[in-house]
Amino acid sequence: MIAGLFRFKGGIKPETHKNASAGSPIQIAPLPKQLIVPLRQSPRATAECIVVPGQKVLKGERIGLPDSPLSTAVHAPTSGTVVEITPHAMAHASGLQTRCVVIEPDGDERWIDRPTLDYASASPKEALAWLRDHGIVGLGGATFPSHIKAGVDGGIETLILNGAECEPWITCDDRLMRERADGIVAGALILKHLTGAREIVFGVEDNKPQAIEALRTAIHGLSGDITVIPVPSLYPAGGEKQLIRVLTGVEIPHGKLGGDFGVQCFNVGTAYAVNRAINHGEPLVSRVMTVTGNVDKPGNFEVLIGTPVEALLALGQPKPDTGRILMGGPMMGFELPRLDVPATKATNCLIATSPTLFPPPPPEMNCIRCGACAVVCPAELQPFELYWFSRARNFGKAQEYHLFDCIECGCCSYVCPSQIRLVDYYRFAKGEIWAREREKSAADAARERFEFRNERQAREKREKAEKLAAKAAATKAKLAAAPTDAPAAVATDTPAGPDDAKRALIAAALERAKAQKAAVEPKNTDALTPEQAAQVAEADARRAAQAAPDTAADAPESN
Amino acid sequence: MLTSPFVRKPTSVQQVMFTVLVALLPAIALYVWQFGAGIVVNIIIATLSAVGAEAAILKLRKKPVGLYVSDLSAVVTAWLIALTFPTILPAWILILATVLSIVAVKQLYGGLGQNPFNPAMAAYCLMIVAYPSAMSQWPAAGWMDLSTHLQLIGGASLDAVTGATPLDALRTGLRSGTDVDGILAREAFGILGGRGWEWIGLGYVAGGLFLIQRRVITWHLPTAFLAGMVLISGLFWIANPAHYASPLFHLASGGTLLAAFFIVTDPVSGATTPRGKLIFAASIALITYLIRNFGAYPDGIAFAVLLMNLCVPLIDMKTQPRVFGHKGD
Predict the structure, then answer these.
(1) CA nearest A427 in B: which residue?
(2) Which of A267, A387, B73, B246 could form a disulfide with A140 if both were Cys (CB 3.0 to 4.6 A apart)?
(3) pTM of the entire predicted model
(4) Complex ipTM, two decimals?
């Protein structure tokens, strides 16, 4: 049971603008003409495509197989025909391309068979595989595969359901909690079962009283330790580490996960998707998104994954003076370089901007070290120090001052009276450090490869020489055993060495030649003169002798 | 293309500086009430020289003149110089001090945010070393009419109107063998400190509390400075009350209250970490007290501030707060 709330340091209270869309119930977005489904639905993992152009697919049919531990399955969001499988720009500030399956809907929305899973009797392994195969990822924005988080082996005490939704403008989680609280709670119970958590805590910012009420109604009468806690509305209270801190008092350092501290945190939308997957057999093919900003009809829509952003934006009816389009919230979202990109499982909000709603940033002035940034930093960093170090390219010092603990929440930039775009400096510094580390590890790898190859070549030469020497020794031994006199005596008297080997080989060759000569019918293939045989043997021995002593001083090959 | 965050708080350096100026108004009003409107004349002179100097050097440095002049930081420096300098100082010294603080102490180091030293205090130190007698001519307690003031700052010498500051009086009194109580009974002294100056001090406190409420400054610096002053003066006072003035006298005299809320709180040249701020401000109080009692100058705040400005990088480096999740490190 949560005794009292804790505080995280810092935080800001930007204008929320949530009223624009919070009042509008979730509507089902109409089917777009085409769905562009990226095979990459979570970071570091692209699913393996298992459909071909021209193939008919059903809604919920798998089109991408998870082929790595961090990968999840990808499904056809509706029934229709696969038109092509092609690289397509993804919803990212870079506008980079990723492999996408383009599906033309047939309009029937025909579902594939939807078997459900009795998770209480299923083995944990089975249930986790079920989540993976139903494409369940974190819907809070990071799209981390849920089967990994739910599969943390034991030690989880508290399961936190994140309904804080602290970013301004966004209301999709709010609406989901208001309208589908039962589904969220059902999903939370599944996640509790999978993680083995003792208690469930819903953390919802106190600016969403209706959502809190709906959740409380949904948990009413449930047995077990399950509570809904209103948390103070203070951005970024919905940051995983901040919410865990507020609800449990535990501070999770950079590089550690909640699971290491007995706390696991899922977005309420994820819990809802888990419920749909397990209790209804539906893979994750749609999610709720907010369309808001400079639009006539801001609202929340249940959108199929792969719906082009322009189609989605049109649902809100942007005003004529609409400028840039933001994906995600205004604090941590990004500007879309183009609008033909598909919505993904991470897409929670589209914001149409206008010069009045989002005025262009004023000119940057010098830092006056007022420390306003340090006061609001939820990571308790000294942002202005990081700014000075990043600006001076003093990356070592920036890391020493915990640059990588920065969660890029934007609080510092928000309050800076000198209008310094602080987060940009940290992104720059992080990028530079990563680039340098990549270069360094590339150089390290190249050096290792080179050293390994040198060693291999040396070893091969050594082995060859040893083999030859052994062969020579064997021949010597044979000669010694044979009823000939002088050469064998020499061979046995002196210690074995390259020269001895040579001599032994010459002797052996001569012996063989003699024997051949003595033979009645010499074979054509072996018709070498003794001189020839001796030359061959000598050459072999010379090569072996050269290779053996100076293998280390070998020059690298050009390749 | 822009990057997140796409929204920002409606705030600016100009707004921060404007708030500081507003916070100085109660003290200025009390100054006028106690000593006459001369201070306003000085503030105008200093402001004009500071803004003029700032604009000129920004132009020379090929920086956006309008952007940086309108940030009001030069105006804040000008007001602080006017308030810390003797009011009856010849105007040319005031102008020289202001121009030097803007040009040499601030802009030559890189302008706004780049100066390692507090501009007003650096100007004060320069002037007290260069013109020690002019810098110790303070008006006697009481109202002075504007024409007398104008004559004085025009360079006229009117010995009748000048008097020693409370700290000066205490210093010379103690040297001549009088004990503290005897000195404080004289006419120049009021209830706590110098007559008239106590009221202005209250104005600084009011302005300072306003700045804390508006989150322009944090409580750390004024609290540590005042606490440091009370502690060190209290120790000496308890040991020998006949020879050392009480903590209350030290709080109410000289620039203690002005410094507590408006000088040691300069963010640019001061320490920035919470613990660093405490060390920085308490050290200034300590050094100030030592200079007041054992040094060659009656008030040592300016020197103490400059000395501690030098220590800021070290203090900040050694007092970095623990970051989130690293409490056990």
Answers:
(1) B3
(2) A267
(3) 0.82
(4) 0.88
